[in-house]
Amino acid sequence: MVITFRPNATPEQLHAVEAKLRDLGFQVVRAPSSGPTVLAAVGDGALPPLAEVCAMPGVAEALPIPEPFKLASRSFRRETTVLRIGDVEIGGTAVVLMAGPCTIESEDQMVRTAAAVRAAGARVLRGGAFKPRTSPYSFQGLGEEGLKLIRRVADANGLLVISEIMDKSQISLMERYVDILQVGARNMQNFSLLRELGKTEKTVLVKRGLSATVDEWLMSAEYVISGGNDRVIVCERGIRAYETYTRNTLDLNAVAVAKSLSHLPVIVDPSHAVGVRDKVVPLARAAIAAGADGLLVEVHNDPERAICDGQQSLFPEQFHALAKQVRQIADAVGRAL
Ligand code: PEP
Ligand code: MN
Fold first, then answer.
1. Which GO terms describe its molecular function (predicted)?
2. Which residue out of 272, 295, 297, 313 has the highest number of ligand 1 atoms within 8 Å of its CB and is therefore the one to mutate?
């Protein structure tokens, strides 16, 4: 249930409504809004009749939230959430480019790649320090050494840092180095991790699982928000289909659907979606045309020698071309870069 108060509602009237809902066992969350106060009551109990809440002093309107993902829904919050980190806005008019290698390998790799993506217009540097590899024998990441390296290189280039978190035991370590904690596709339904991420103040990017429905994906975002952290971004990264020419299939339907159902910023990762280097740029264009708020792209200074995901990593000059084309598409759909 979402409750909108009258502009002249008193704090006592607000508290009375909050107390009533809390007494019934609901969690009461206030929407971050500059307009009238909006509260949501979420929980698994039986809500009081809408008319009863509507009749309470100070209440302008009480409506049901039909979606299962209550706090992530536009029924709760109509305007798109804009997340500010430093001077970067995610979800605002400008689309945001996040780019860098699949995994952090060396100082030379990070310095060259960061300079290239920064020059092209990226605002966030990506790079995994903990890698979820299909084989236990594959490179698993540099761990804290990698985090130190990406932080140092990002700072030197005026970039933010996004990196994947695999386990809740890594939260306190990663909070020291990272601006955006990425929950990977394979961990989208790691509910104990999502719950713990609800307690951090860092922005969390939740990738869509390999075969997750939009409802399941947004429910994962809901876990983080209901845990107390509303700084959430969702990321479409391709779903598993029957096609074998490409690694996955970029689901642009999901981008349009998520944008209309949810107020959360939606990012697209065309690299893991298609898995083939020369198809990344066209998909990046399509994603921005479909309404994505930004892109997460794998770029490597020397992709042929990358330890991980080289086949889908762009050469720096390809990323430059991507940014140029995305700027034109963004302009055509009333956005900017
Ligand atoms: C990655 O971003 O390198 C990654 C492992 O992505 P995903 O979780 O989407 O497979
Ligand atoms: Mn990768």
1. 3-deoxy-7-phosphoheptulonate synthase activity; aldehyde-lyase activity
2. 272
